[in-house]
Amino acid sequence: MDKVRALIVDDSSVMRKIVERSLRQAGIDLVEVREAGNGAEALGALRDGPVDLILCDINMPVMDGLEFVRQLQGVENARGVPVVMITTEGSESHVVQALSCGARGYIRKPFTPDQVKEHVIPVLENHK
Amino acid sequence: MKSPNELAAHSDREAWLPLLELAAREVFEIMLGCKLELAGDTVNPVPSEFTGMVGLAGQLCGVLTMRCTAQSAALMTSKMLGIDPRQADEHVWDAIGEVCNMVAGNFKNKLSGMGEGCMLSVPTVITGGDYTFHSLADEGALEVRLLFEGVPILVALEIHS
């Protein structure tokens, strides 16, 4: 698999580290990991250059994950970049809402590294 | 008088206790790699040097809390991050908040039809045990006492009608 630049968006720094570890355990060759604590910070982080993959929580202060995904469509650096939501919000309506906003995948917390692999690898492969 | 929906929801609550326990067990097993054991009623009171809280609003209103010792909090953090418990200090609030958030989310996702209309707050973590928890919840509390690495923790759901 190609080298991947990832942006991990979660208001929990512990969860950001767990997500990064899970991506590495899934065999994804991360060459750059950017972190953001909410959607607004994530939009700022994208000004530093493009990424290949975004993993994003939903419930966050300042700007939540759904609003971030909506606004992402207008960011030149991020158009078409696959977003996978990783969240405790597991209801069908949240899944539908996230996918209709433009997310390509949805992982419910708690999650195993295998679930990350199962959801993220196909998304990356489809994006090639 | 309570509506039929309220009555149905109230009777369901007796069945929520095993779901609360299962929600906590799954989070600890999947994210921390350890099994929780039932503590039984003899463990009383559960020390609460760390209290994680997540509010629920919408179809289900209330507060989910998780209480534990400082030592357990550090151990949970170390297990989540794969670090030594002595290095856990700077991450422990965040970790306890996230565990609490995942237990709350996992629990509401197990309630048939309830998860759709229920939102979670951002977690709050209180440190120090010298406080009194006074909830305005009028539907009582569901409490599960569990052993994490042999030390008791308490997971409780205070429910508002």
CATH superfamily of chain A: Response regulator
- Estimate the mean pLDDT confidence of chain A: 92
User: Could you name the CATH topology of chain A?
Assistant: Rossmann fold
Identify the CATH architecture of chain A: 3-Layer(aba) Sandwich
Order of helices and strands of chain B: HHEEEHHEEEE
Q: Outline of chain A, from the CA principal axes?
A: globular
- For this structure, the CATH topology of chain B is Chemotaxis protein chec
Write out key terms for the chains shown.
heterodimer, A: 128 residues, alpha/beta, Rossmann fold, 5 helices, 5 strands, 20% strand, globular, B: 161 residues, alpha+beta, Chemotaxis protein chec, seven-stranded antiparallel sheet, 7 strands, disordered N terminus
Note the topology.
The complex is a heterodimer of chains A (128) and B (161).
Chain A: E1 4-9, H1 13-25, E2 30-36, H2 39-45, E3 53-56, H3 65-72, E4 83-87, H4 92-101, E5 105-108, H5 113-127
Helix pairs in contact in A: 1-5, 2-3
Chain B: H1 4-12, H2 16-32, E1 37-38, E2 50-58, E3 61-68, H3 70-81, H4 92-110, E4 118-120, E5 124-127, E6 141-148, E7 151-160
Antiparallel strand pairs in B: 1-6, 2-3, 2-4, 2-5, 3-7, 6-7
Helix pairs in contact in B: 2-4, 3-4
